[in-house]
Amino acid sequence: MRSQEAKGLKSRRLGEDTVGIWLEKPPISIDWDIDQILAKGTTLIIAGNVGIGKSWESVHLAFQLRLGRKWHGLQCRELMPFYLSLEFTENQMQKRIQKLAKSYSKDIYPLEEIRIVADKGGNYKLNDDEGKKNLFNLLRQDKMRPPQVIILDPLSLFIKGQLHKVDWNNEIEPVLNEIKAEFNCSIILNHNFRKATHIQGHSEDSFAPDRLKGVSDLIDRADTILMFVAESQPRKDAEGKSVRIEVAKWLCAPKTRDAEWLLQPYRVIWDYDKAQFIPENGLGWTEPGKSKRYTS
Questions:
Q1: 195 falls in which pLDDT band (50, 70, 90)?
Q2: pTM of the predicted protein model
Q3: Does the structural domain 31-293 have CATH classification 3.40.50.300?
Q4: What whole-number distance in Å separates Cα of residue 162 and Cα of residue 210?
Q5: Residue intervals in the chain for CATH 3.40.50.300
Q6: Is the bond into 146 cis (omega within 30 degrees of 0)?
């Protein structure tokens, strides 16, 4: 009782916002939607080269969030995700969902509640009045199951105009904050920091001015960025057919103010049957884990 009275007297004497009072406060607990990389109400960016599997991983992540399972070794809170793709048609999305769902046959019932919308060419641009209205109307449709995590894929199609000319601080960030405030949710954005350019008859990923400008704005505003980095990407197999990424390194660079740990990078390999990345521990890398304190 005396300590509480003394603390009260000290608070009144020093003020509630002085350094002395801050030093006395107990640690603040963090509500993680995805352990160590997505705190509730923050923004996560999933980045990587064209065709590396970001969209596949987003559907996989939505499934893991709904079931409250681990995603690449990181615990997910059981939430209701909403995934909006402006890159794929309904036919393309249907094929992806059906392929991924085969790995979840025993848990298909709760997954049926997830809202996944594919609207290629639709206007849901954050810096456009009509696009913003369309996006909010779409998010408000299911009042019984409001979204708790919103995945927008890809970010570039949610932006009106060229990326290097967009005022992120005044045009994009305020809308993302409106979404978080209304739905009390977190946001995941898919983004490719590079884009394909055609060079001597074939396409290569390269940095371009608009993407570089986007990088600087996003890194400044995102709370956490996850990067899929291709390590080998054979263009043709033995029969001359196009093939996907074989091996990639999954890196986590948390810059969120709430992050407590740096995560170790680890290697993953694409599983064609499951249509998702799986850990390749045989290559000598560890699964993501708490390697050292972020504040050290």
A1: low
A2: 0.81
A3: yes
A4: 7
A5: 31-293
A6: no
